[in-house]
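QUALITY CONTROL LOG
STEP: pairwise intake check
CHECKER ROLE: data steward
CRITERIA: each record must contain a sequence immediately followed by its structure tokens, with no blank fields

ENTRY 1 OF 2
RESULT FIELD BELOW
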Amino acid sequence: MLNADQFTVINIVMIACVLITFFSVYVPQKVNRRYKMTAVFSLSVCALMMAAVAHFKGIMAANNSMLAIWIPLTFVVFWVFSKYKGGRYLVTYFISLLSITSINGLGFIVVDTCFGWRPIAHVLIRCTLMLLAAWLMWRFVKKPFAKALASVSKGWSLMAVVTGLFYLAFVVFFAYPKPITERPKEYGFAVLLILTIYCAVVLVIYTILNLSQEIEKGLAEAQRQNEQRINSMRLAQMEQQYKNMMNTLEQTRIIRHDLAHHFRMISEYCSSRQYEKIEAYLEELNFRNVMEEVKVYCRNGTANVILSYYAWLSETEDITYSCEADLPAKILCNEMDLSVLLGNALENAVEGCRKVCKERELHIRLRYEKKKLIFDIRNSFDGILREKNGLLQSTKEQEQHGFGMRSIQRVVDKYDGYLRYYTEEQTFILQIVLILEEL
């Protein structure tokens, strides 16, 4: 027969394994350090109480106190700090409890059948089995079950009823009409019940994880189709944008080609002293705008095309545009990636300016140093940041919400870069750094 100390050791290990198992399948609230301290403290007090009851009133009294005190206490402690309530919580709790208590019961039957009431065998074998079960839950169930808790929304109530009924059947069979330790003839049925319970627990876990995988596959397929649709839209937009930019550049080339003719005309007017015609000719030519259109912002052709286009677009939108760009002709960055990054960033900036009634401003600083491409883009906006799931949202059509920033983030991730955005009063600031090593 086990003495009080041996019984206490077994039950303390069981409590610790239940705690480990629950942590394996449980998703805590944000403040989980306080939860763990409370859980460990309360369960430790409960274990000491059972040890005291076992020492003064016997093992059976301690066993009954476990059912009366320890189980309700763990239920309340875990519930208070649990992130998920309702069916999710009940399934998690009963799976944790059944996984350890049933294996403890199975260990008792195996040891009692093979070794009788040898205390050392009971302590070593039962504790080893419980620790092994807790480790298996921690090793193989923890991460996928946490995903399942977050993704699966239906079916938890039914699974909670199943796991709850199995735990009730386990407790009733092992405790009534008298403890299983006094009914050795029923060990065979007890083993069958425990194996059935374990199979049921495994089936419940498998069902939950399978539902989670199916949901993840559906979400991945939906995201893939959505990305394809958005990429098609973006491609069409980029093609149109490219045509507009090329038209602008073509007009600029024509104007630059005609400058020689214009200068000859002005020279002729000067020679013939027809100064009034010079003034009229310059007004018709709008010479100031011509000089602005041929401005070169940097030596990099791709960046210069995009910067020139948005300079022109800013003028049409009545946006004050300034740009400081120091980019060499050749950089270790794919031209399409640079176009996607800079084009989306400036498109979002112009869009933000459109929401402002007055004092529209767009300031751009680009530089390349030590194989790092650095962007600092600042624009006026209406002061309202639109975010969803940590992703900045567009104010354009619903179908395009956030995909510009996703494209930017994808390029940043490709180059192991850095992205940050924040606000200062009515100014939105986007900062990007790309690490331009050989890919």
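ENTRY 2 OF 2
RESULT FIELD BELOW
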Amino acid sequence: MDASMMGASELALELGARVRRERLRQNMTQRTLAERAGVSRLTVTRMEANGEAALLTNFLSVLVALRRAGDLESLLAPRVAETIEQFVGEQTVRQRGSR
């Protein structure tokens, strides 16, 4: 999967499919996952079906219930500077974006 070539809807579908695969890999029902995540079974069903129905907090709750929240670590990790300009540019912490 090349996420950089996907739109938001396609990414949501892919994430929903991955949640389903992981749930099945762990031999878990949608009801069990929903109970562990503190969401409704319908939320899990919709998340797996089209991904777009999921609020971010519900998606994160499902990741925690699947014990996969650690997978977000690489997403949230600071980018590694590949050039000296990138390294120097990361020394300042921006307070807001440019206009």
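INTAKE CHECK: passed for both entries
DESCRIPTIVE NOTE, ENTRY 2: Residues 8-25 form the longest helix (18 residues).
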